[in-house]
Each structure stands twice: as C-alpha cells, then as structure tokens.
Design brief:
The protein has 523 residues and is of the alpha+beta class. It is built from 19 helices and 14 strands.
C-alpha cells in the first residue's frame, strides 16, 4: 500500500543524520522501532516500490500497517543503538524481535574501595559506590579495549576480590608482567590505585596520546608493507574510538517524542471526557492472564500524574477461581486489592493518633482516583459488584474494550468512542497495555517454573526443600537427568538409597519419553 500523504510529507523533511524512527499504526500504537545512520535514506527505503514487490511477507505487512511515523535525531550511531534498545523495551512493538527481552547493554565497573580494584563487566548499575562507564553499544569493542587497557596500565584481570595464595601461585598476569601484582609484589596499594585512576581517566576520554601513537604505528607498518599488522592496529584504533566516544545513557526516554504521552495534558483531557471533578492524580489498571484455565494470574499497575509508578505495581495469583473464568478472576482481584487498601487505611488512621505522628507521614491505604479494567461490560460489572460490597462505589471506574477501543462506564449502555489521536485515549491505552504486559510476564514466570519442577513433583516422597536443593544444585531437570548417581548423592537430603531411586525414576521417564516420540513418528 503506498504511503499516505501525511507520511510522504514527513519523508521529505527527514534529515540526513543518525537517529531512531518509530512506525505507528492507525491507532497510534508503535509497531516498529529502528535505527539509522542516515534517517532519510533508511526510512524512505520502506516505501520504495521495489521493496514492496519483494517476497518478505512480514515486511509487506509492516509497511501496510504504517499510518504515521516519528523520528528522534541523536549524535552518533552508538547513541542510536542505545536509544533503539531502550525504546523497544518500553513499547514492545509487534514487529521487533531484538531487544524485546530484559537484557541490557554492557557497562564497565570498578570499585576503588576494593582491596585491590579490578575492572569487571556488568549489565546492571547499582548504588554501591563503584564507578561505571557506559553503556556500550558494541560489546566486542569494549572487551578488546579493556584487554588493551589492562596491558597498558598493568592491571589485574583475575576474578577474586582479594587474591589469596592459591590464586597468585599460578597467576599468568603476574608471570607475563601484565599485572604489577600488588597481591604478591612490593607494589603498594596506593601505587596500584594510581594505575587504576589513570585507566579511569583513559576510559573517560583522555586517550588522545594513545590514539596518536597507534595511528603512527599503523602508518609505519603500512609503509613497511606489513599490512597484517597495520590492519590489526586499524581495528584496535577503531575499537578504542568506539569505546571512548562520549554517549548519552538515556536513563529517561526523550519525552519530546510525539509517541510518548504528554501526561499532564492527557490527564486533564481524560477528566473532561469522563466528567470527573478533577484530573485523576492516581490511576490503577487491572488485567487478567489466564491460559486454558492454568496459572490464572492478575496484575495491577499504578500511574501517578499520567506516568508509571512501578513501586505501586502488584500481582495476584488466583486462590478461589477454578477453570477459565475471567469475570470471577477480575472479581477476586478487585476484592483482594481494595480489602487490603481498606485495612491499610484504617491502620494508617490509627497510627496518626499516636504522639508525634504527622498527617502526611504515611501514604499506605490510599484509594485511586480512577480504576481502569481491561475488558468490556462483563469484566466491568464484576469489578463494580465487588466495589459495591466493600462500600467503594464512589470510586470512578471504567472498562476499555480492546477491539474498538471503547470506554464503558457503570450504568451506561453506550460506550464512549474517542478519536485515536486523543491524548486521553492514548493514556488509557498505555495503562491497559502496561497491565497486560505485567500480567503476561508473571504468567510466563509461573509456567517456566512449573515446567522445570513438574517432573520432580511426581517423584514419591519428595518435599519442597529437597526439590529446591536439587534445582539449586543442577539448575534444571534436564541437567539433573544427565547427572551421575554420585553427583545426586552429594545433594543434601539424598543418601545412597534416595539417590538410586531418583536416578532410576528419571531414567525410566527418559525412556518413556523416547518411546512415545518413536511411536508418534511411526504413526
């Protein structure tokens, strides 16, 4: 399908600069996030006639679904990679595959308070007093640069926090003179800290002298026709520049992007649409995840001033519902949530009567200004009934049906239908999608855990402690099947007899599985 006039107008205005682009469908939902060294060249390729004649069905489906697009210009290709990954995790577009998991880009960490500081790679920045560099878009360039830094500044690469005699007796870093080895040599900790600090300055960008030396050596090798060495130095120089190039961390998403909500304006518009007395300062959204009646769970997400308040997220595993009954699941979730809020509210009021307690010192038990239910009339009715039983019918509540994005209200038969460009609708969609994501994530965690433990549950006489000990020792049932009798016997709670019985049980189940597979293939 050819690009719309609106999209064609944007294509002609795209800059020849690096950045990220976001494709949106007719509902305003982000369906694809990509990066480009040249935004105009990359994005216009999507709408070239020759590309639409290709055989890639996924690509054609994506182009047909594009109704609008937005771009964000960055300073370098590395920044584009970092921002692309963060936006994909935020929006989880349906046509993206990479970066959808929770894996983060690599960081370089050094804690100067350690007895003998060392540089390590990590993916999570913590408030532990350490110094962090990154994140880095290219893990390969970072690892090669780190190896060069260790050689240049004679730093250790061993893993021990404080190397002991068994560690340094066979330490290659010391014997090859790569490390000054303060653990066994006469080098003082103060002298070693100076080496580490020099390496920190180097990684922070003070590396012009090293770049000049490598470039001179590269030209010299090329002049001597040693092209292999020149190529190695060229690659090393490129890795060094990529690693030490200043990049932004994007700890917060750029809210100038049109695809992100404008929270303050959207909350005001939502209050006008629903006829609320004031903009809802706090919205709580609910969703159910129930696959074929198994692992029925629910989620509750909290938004403050139109922004996610992840500290207020809650998840629920159904206790009273059997089978696949979304209405009953929603009723149980709402009942449990606001029964607890009422209890916390009463406890908070009682605490306020204590001497020296300030009225604003406690926030537990606070009720939301708006409740959003993912679903239509059925789910909304179930939630309203539970609120009425608790005496909380005064709390505004609505349901958002996904098929046509219709807003249902209690006691009103006709739903509200907003334009897809409406900021109020986009805010409700964001709350609904976040609750859906949170519920599905919890459901997936339970299913993976159950899959790994289900076979052990069938073994007679095994308890939770012994099962946990096995999984902690081997990591999974598949690895447990490959373990020897002696390895199983080393686990706490498994003597010779118990280990033999478990080994025989696992072997019998493995044979049964193989026999079933053969039978299915023959049939």
């Amino acid at each position: 399908m050819p690009a719309t006039e609106h999209v064609r107008g944007k294509l002609s205005q795209l800059p020849h600069k690096p950045g990220i682009y976001l494709m949106k469908d007719r509902f305003g939902t982000v369906i694809y996030v990509g990066k480009a060294r040249d935004l105009r060249r990359r994005v216009t390729q999507y709408f070239h006639p020759s590309r639409r004649m290709g055989w890639d069905l996924k690509f054609n489906a994506l182009v047909e679904a594009i109704h609008d697009l937005d771009v964000h210009v960055v300073r370098s290709d590395a920044e584009a990679v970092l921002l692309e990954g963060k936006l994909i995790k935020e929006f989880r577009p349906r046509y993206n595959v990479s970066f959808r998991d929770d894996k983060r880009f690599l960081l370089l960490k050094v804690n100067l308070n350690d007895p003998i500081p060392r540089f390590t790679l990590t993916r999570l920045e913590q408030a532990d007093g350490a110094r962090y560099f990154g994140p880095f878009a290219s893990s390969g360039a970072l690892r090669r640069t780190l190896a060069m830094v260790r050689h240049k500044f004679n730093l250790r690469g061993c893993r021990a926090l404080t190397p002991s005699e068994p560690d340094y007796r066979h330490c290659l870093y010391a014997h090859l003179k790569v490390c000054t080895a303060p653990c066994i040599s006469n080098v003082s900790r103060e002298q070693y800290l100076l080496q580490v600090q020099a390496a920190c300055d180097f990684l922070a960008g003070q590396c012009a002298e090293m770049e000049g030396q490598i470039e001179a050596d590269m030209k010299k090798a090329a002049g001597e026709l040693d092209f292999e060495k020149a190529a190695q130095l060229r690659d090393l120089l490129a890795d060094l520049r990529r690693t030490t190039e200043p990049t932004r961390k994007f700890t917060r998403l750029p809210y100038t992007l049109p695809t992100t909500v404008t929270p303050d304006e959207d909350v005001v518009e939502l209050a006008q649409v629903l006829g609320l007395a004031a903009p809802p300062a706090r919205i709580e959204g609910f969703d159910i995840s129930n696959i074929s009646g198994t692992f029925a769970v629910a989620s509750m997400v909290s938004f403050r001033a139109g922004r996610p308040d992840r500290a207020g997220y809650r998840r629920f595993k159904m206790k009273t519902v059997t089978g696949q009954d979304d209405f009953a699941c929603m009723a149980e979730t709402v009942r449990r949530r606001y029964t607890r809020v009422m209890k916390e509210s009463l406890e908070a009021k009682g605490a306020l009567t204590e001497p020296g307690m300030h009225p604003g010192a406690s926030r537990p038990g606070r009720f939301p200004d708006l409740i959003l239910i993912d679903g239509g009339k059925g789910q909304l009715s179930s939630a309203c009934e539970e609120l009425a039983k608790l005496g909380l019918s005064s709390i505004p509540i609505i349901g958002l049906a996904k098929e046509f994005e219709e807003i249902y209200r209690p006691g009103v038969s006709e739903p509200i239908r907003l334009l897809h460009s409406s900021g109020a609708l986009k805010l409700l969609q964001r709350v609904r999608d976040e609750s859906h994501r949170f519920a599905n994530t919890y459901n997936a965690q339970l299913r993976l855990k159950r899959i790994s433990e289900s076979l052990l549950d069938e073994f007679p006489g095994i308890g939770e402690q012994r099962k946990a000990a096995l999984l902690k020792r081997f990591g999974s049932v598949q690895r447990l099947r490959l373990a020897t009798l002696e390895q199983i016997a080393e686990v706490t709670g498994f003597g010779g007899k118990a280990a033999s019985e478990l080994k025989a049980f696992l072997d019998a189940r493995s044979l049964a599985t193989e026999s079933q597979s053969v039978t299915e293939k023959e049939s």
